[in-house]
């Protein structure tokens, strides 16, 4: 719906016909073209208007939506923790199929039913506790051969080669966070943004593209943020998307170790 300042009590319905593919990194906005009827001629060129966008998504017949923070990634699998008892803090891991992402939420295509409660904050803490107790977790898929560490993503050879070139810069970024060097953090993040944008992801699956796009966005947040604490928060989100891709890389010249601390990020847990 579109609202004009001159007619604040009137809504004009419109349909978006085009979304510009380029993001303005300064304003964090994208331009869209909307088609609307104006039979009374109320809307004039140059008028200032605001709009609210609503999405019709047919991928989830049940219409279930959960916060993006509730989802754990392991390869191409999407996992959530579901509360099994309303009166006690007991949770079970559940694989779900995601629909489209809308803002900070995901539509659920399958895996959850209406009324079920999912963990939206502290998912890494619960998962770490499950791992310590050798229970079903992100890294310990009970019932699968050899307790698989997640199904690997399907990555093209060219993508893997391009992504491997970014790993040395990531290591520099990590050490900059260890030493709390905010100037170096911003400089390396900017360099990584440039490199990531050059990688062709058109032929990759939607899940991998989502990881890459989130990596670019969080790197931009790290680059432009002037508070170290906020940079650290963005770094945690970066790693949640960077680690699954790194784990799927083949033919690395040296071993890479993934570390996990359940007490990081205010006990929410973090990978790097």
Automatic annotation (TrEMBL):
Question: One GO term of the cellular component aspect?
Answer: cell envelope
Q: In the record, what terms sit under GO molecular function?
A: transmembrane transporter activity
Which residue intervals define the domain DUF3347 in the entry?
A: 166-250
Which residue numbers delimit the CusB-like beta-barrel domain? 5-55
Residues forming the CzcB-like C-terminal circularly permuted SH3-like domain are: 65-126
Q: Which GO terms describe its biological process?
A: copper ion export; plasma membrane copper ion transport
Task: Report whether Transport shows up as a keyword of the record.
Answer: yes
One Pfam family from the record: CzcB_C
Q: Does the keyword Transport apply?
A: yes
Which InterPro entries does the record cross-reference, listed alphabetically? Beta-barrel_RND_2, CzcB_C, DUF3347, MFP_Cation_Efflux, RND_pump_MFP
Keywords, alphabetical: Transport
PANTHER family associated with the record: CATION EFFLUX SYSTEM PROTEIN CUSB, SLR6042 PROTEIN
Know the name of this protein? Answer: RND efflux pump membrane fusion protein barrel-sandwich domain-containing protein
């Amino acid at each position: 719906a579109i609202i004009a300042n001159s007619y604040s009590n009137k809504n004009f319905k419109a349909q978006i016909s085009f979304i510009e593919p380029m993001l303005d990194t300064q304003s964090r906005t994208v331009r869209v073209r909307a088609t609307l009827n104006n039979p009374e001629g109320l809307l004039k060129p140059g008028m200032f208007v605001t709009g609210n966008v609503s999405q019709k998504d047919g991928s989830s017949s049940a219409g279930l939506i959960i916060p993006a923070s509730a989802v754990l990634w392991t390869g191409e699998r999407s996992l959530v923790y579901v509360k099994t008892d309303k009166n006690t803090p007991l949770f079970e891991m559940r694989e779900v199929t995601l629909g489209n992402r809308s803002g900070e939420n995901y539509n659920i295509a399958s895996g959850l039913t209406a009324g079920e409660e999912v963990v939206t904050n502290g998912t890494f803490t619960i998962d770490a506790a499950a791992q310590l107790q050798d229970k079903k977790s992100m890294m310990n898929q009970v019932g699968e051969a050899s307790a698989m560490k997640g199904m690997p993503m399907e990555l093209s050879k060219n993508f893997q080669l391009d992504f491997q070139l970014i790993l040395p810069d990531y290591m520099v970024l990590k050490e900059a966070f260890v030493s709390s060097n905010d100037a170096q953090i911003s400089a390396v993040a900017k360099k990584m943004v440039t490199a990531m944008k050059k990688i062709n992801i058109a032929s990759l699956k939607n899940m991998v593209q989502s990881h890459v796009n989130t990596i670019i966005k969080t790197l931009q947040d790290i680059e432009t943020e002037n508070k170290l604490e906020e940079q650290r928060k963005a770094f945690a989100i970066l790693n949640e998307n960077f680690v699954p891709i790194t784990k799927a890389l083949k033919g690395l010249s040296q071993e890479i170790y993934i570390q996990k601390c359940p007490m990081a990020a205010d006990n929410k847990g973090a990978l790097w």
